[in-house]
User: What shape does this take?
Amino acid sequence: MIASPIPTAGNPAADDESGQAAFDAVIAADSRIEPRDWMPEDYRRTLIRQISQHAHSEIIGMQPEGNWITRAPSLKRKAILLAKVQDEAGHGLYLYSAAQTLGITRDEMTRQLIDGKAKYSSIFNYPTPTWADMGAIGWLVDGAAICNQVPLCRASYGPYARAMVRICKEESFHQRQGFEILLTLMQGTDAQREMAQESVDRWYWPALMMFGPPDDESPNSARSMAWKIKRFSNDELRQRFVGMLVPQAEALGVSLPDPTLRWNAQEERYDMSEIDWTEFHEILAGRGPMNAVRIQNRRNAHEDGAWVREAAVAYARRQALKAERQVA
Ligand code: FAQ
Assistant: This one.
């Protein structure tokens, strides 16, 4: 047998010393840790934290756009929006499955969310009063998600990285459909152009907050980067995102609501105004404009769906019995 050139962390029952050495070798070789491999307890906990928060974000993230499915301006727009929101449900499911490989159950994660104990992305606590918000969410929110998530396709934990590959492909389509909604509005009447600009003005700063606190206030970054879960810091990705937005905003004909935004050639970065971190912290503390509504809706959906879960369990039981009888 030819020995594999790729190191693996191997036996989950390894003692801590040999397990740690094997784990370190996998990380150093830029290879992947898999569910049955030995891993440090903090690495497992960090992944459960990040992946479950990410899954919750996708599930809660269905609500702001779900609000417009019945009011989309045409059948075509309605079909596209419906498909997008369904994609988000799918992303939540891949991510919950990836988190489950680390030893937490779906029930536990759901319980943490509906009890209001779990975090999910700050961005989903803002309302969507206009149709242009569907464009701004696709362009800015999915755009930020792509910037943040493409590097996660190379995360050191196999199931997470593999889930991200498919998610990113779908997010790219989402981003383009948002851009196209805004472009259509910008090519329309004055009132439509105003609606698009007003929406971009509302979503720009919250989208920048999606990347998390500034690097010097990000307690998890250093370790997550050493473990190659995160590949870039929060501020690095925020800069990359702004760099992506500037030419796209020009193409759309919208302005970005930051009068100080300028390319600094000397430092090779964008100078920008200070983000309102008080607003970010208020939202994380549960005091954003839509926090209570989002959680209440999720709780109601969970309760209303109890019969579906019961039926699925009963069906699985019946199928298992049938299979047993066939073997006997
Ligand atoms: N919102 O030390 P860091 C999407 C928390 S999916 C709320 O920097 P880390 C698709 C953070 O959890 C959007 N909380 O943390 C879509 C930590 O709290 P903890 C979700 C935030 O983990 C589009 C504390 O602050 N994407 O949009 C936020 O190293 C359209 C300190 O922060 C992901 O989850 C925030 N914005 O870096 C769906 C991507 N930022 O846990 C529908 C994966 C930070 O210690 C419609 N996650 N916090 O109590 C990540 O890349 C990272 O977890 C970061 C945060 C970058 C979000």
Remarks:
- The CA atoms of residues 84 and 321 lie 38 Å apart.
- The beta strands are 262-264, 269-271.
- Residues 49-50, 53-54, 57-58, 61, 88, 119, 121-122, 137, 141-142, 145, 148-149, 209-213, 218-221, 224, 230, 234, 284 surround Phenylacetyl coenzyme A (CB under 6 Å).
